[in-house]
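[Automated response] Your request has been received and processed.

Submitted sequence:
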Amino acid sequence: MDGQAVAGEALGVAVAARVPVLLWGAPGTGKTSVIRALAAAAELPCETVIASIREPSDFAGLPIVDRDGPSGPQVTFAPPAWARTLTDAGTGLAFFDEISTAPPAVQAALLRVVLERTVGDLVLPDEVSIVAAANPPDQAADGWELSPPLANRFCHLDWEVDAATVASGFASGWPAPSVAAVPAGWESRLAVTRAWVAGFLTVRPMLALAVPDDASAAGRAWPSPRSWEMAARLQCACQAARADELVVSLLIRGSVGAGAGVEYLTWLEEADLPDPEAVLDDPESFVLPERGDRAYAALTSVAAAVAADPTPDRWARGWQAFGKAAGAAPDVAATAARALARCRPPGASLPPELATFTPLLRDAGLL
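Generated structure:
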């Protein structure tokens, strides 16, 4: 799979997962065309907004004085036409093109749109995805570096072009990318990928938040609690869509930066964490990893799997696994036990394995 195909598939996963995604590439490489082609292939309405020719009010809303408000005159913020069109459709792509040419005031107005999906006093529907495209500032017309707060709201993908891809496109046509086929209910496994991220950050706490000092690096992907949440969400969506490992790597590195992303993926591969559903099927076969960070990730993923489907039987099986872990790593098991205790289903009886953790859970107000 060439670089452009990987980026196209990653773009489709981000759109399906409703994670804001920003496509970086040189001018004339087809970024705008591929985003519009993706929308057309998925039969989604696409509203293109050229950031460089817009005012802050095109994203923050135009202030209007309503003199007949219920409690007297008040100011409302009327949304622009592109936002009303997407809201009426109930789905689609909000495509912000040439975002690296947007001046700081416009970038500031975009912050709430990208994160909270709010334009003026209008909230975009959940089925609307945020997509953007940009040229590197040194290749853009009057380009600006992205502000760190705006950059940290996107998953950043590089749109690479090589001669073979261009030749193939001219000879046989350009393949249209597609939105990934993510099955319904895919978010039920999100707590598991969050648990993996939590396990990694226990051993690399400096990567929980690492804002680059360099303005150029701060305008791309870097680790923060928000971008780690995006990484967990995208990893979960990739698993549900059975995406290629290269796509998973590209999306995680595009969320938290190349360095943090590679470290996380390497840690995850070496950790060889058990499938939490397999643990719940056969708790007696559960073998706790020796290292504390991996043990914590394994146990919290089991608790997360129970929380996603909290039946009395699954809750009891979860405690059976925790009971085995208590002898090998009592401190780690006790820390993770709080998450399992919180998802107790109504009417579930207390299993005997819980006795080991009773004082801790009682002090935490969970019993």
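Summary generated for your ticket: The beta strands are 21-24, 46-50, 62-66, 74-78, 92-97, 118-119, 122-123, 128-134, 155-158. Residues 272-363 form one domain.
If you did not submit this request, please reply to this message.
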